Amino acid sequence: MNAMSGSVLHPLYPMMLAAAIGSTVFAPRASAAVAGPKRAVWAEHDLRIELPRLPRHYSCDELNEKVHDVLLAIGARADMRVRANRCTADFDITVPPRVHVIFSLPVEVHGQLAKSADMFAVERTVRIEPGNPPSIDFSDCEFLRQLNLTLFPAVYIPIEVNHLACRPTAAGHTPFSVSLDALLPAPEPAKAGLLQPTFSAQVAPHGI
Prior knowledge:
The protein is of the alpha+beta class. It has four helices and seven strands, in the order E-H-E-H-E-E-E-H-H-E-E.
């Protein structure tokens, strides 16, 4: 996968879940939220993300916490691994921080592939902004803007709307946010009727 908009993204796991369970591939999730649980499987991602031109120094612990919390907010399984490096205290702008993340997100399965589903998930609009998740604060606009250009597209999470101009004003930092249509883990439906897979549903086409 190529670098996007100035930030470097090095995917180590090239989204080959389909090869493991069959030749059918999953389509990206639609931007409009759909009511009701969906049959899904966990898909693992292994990415390295560079974060150039951050406006302030971030410690590795800060980056680990913020990336972890953003991933959790968009549906990642709790057993993710996040490791930041190159977080030098002297803030050398020529050596941007890098974050290596290994994590799993729900992916909807259709048709006969629904037989392999090991979980349910629901589509929800997730808004990320200062205070949500709590580790994101008003100094993180550029950090979130770079995730918006690299991480979210790499895992095919539709971006509904973003307000990431990241221009400080005389009054201080301007508000910022990004809203995404995420597939979040959900409890198994209680009603028996919801547990019946719809095997007549069309299988998503190739070409994630």
